[in-house]
Amino acid sequence: MTLSGVDLSRAVSQALRHAPWLYELELDEEGWAPVDQLLASLREKGGAWGSVDRDALERMLATATKRRHELDGDRIRALYGHSVPGRIRRRVATPPARLFHGTAPETWAVIQAEGLAPMRRQFVHLSVDRETALMVGRRKSASPVLLLIDAAGAAAAGACFYEGNELVWLTDSVPAGFIKLVE
């Protein structure tokens, strides 16, 4: 049995985004974990997992359809999507002037009144283009609504933005006044 890149990506995401304690990993304040510890923990699962090595990890990163993880020397981290307790520290960056968010139609009334909040995640996830936002929104609804975020205005008003990857930006929250429904 061969381990797929998708299976490896899911396990690495679980370990670095949601449940590092299940893999006996300690994330530092920026979300980094030692590659050797991650690989040792994955190999302990047995079966096809027993052959997971750094080459397999690098292949998974190189062939992934989305850039979810980052490798730097002997450490690795998830770029976004954390639900672990404690806050992952990010560097503030200047966002594009506008960003997008896809969501279920029934949540628009709440967002319109209260703005965007991270819910069960550490940050609100925003997309650089309509297509990505709608793809994310389809996880919540077959017919998602598309929201336009005035990121430049929100940043000027004091909202902090952080780069997740080339398609995803993160923020602590977006006040309702900087969000419009795209018709």
UniProtKB/TrEMBL annotation:
Pfam families: PTS_2-RNA (PF01885)
The keyword ATP-binding is assigned to this record: no
Keyword match NAD: yes
Coiled coil: none
Record function comment: Removes the 2'-phosphate from RNA via an intermediate in which the phosphate is ADP-ribosylated by NAD followed by a presumed transesterification to release the RNA and generate ADP-ribose 1''-2''-cyclic phosphate (APPR>P). May function as an ADP-ribosylase.
HAMAP family in the record: KptA (MF_00299)
Name used for this protein in its record: Probable RNA 2'-phosphotransferase
Similarity remark: Belongs to the KptA/TPT1 family.
Gene designation: kptA
Record Gene3D superfamilies: 3.20.170.30, RNA 2'-phosphotransferase, Tpt1/KptA family, N-terminal domain
EC number per UniProt: 2.7.1.-
PANTHER family associated with the record: PUTATIVE PHOSPHOTRANSFERASE (PTHR12684), TRNA 2'-PHOSPHOTRANSFERASE 1 (PTHR12684:SF2)
Top enzyme category: transferase
Keywords assigned by UniProt, alphabetized: NAD, Transferase
InterPro entries: Ptrans_KptA/Tpt1 (IPR002745), RNA_2'-PTrans_C (IPR042081), RNA_2'-PTrans_KptA (IPR022928), RNA_2'-PTrans_N (IPR042080)
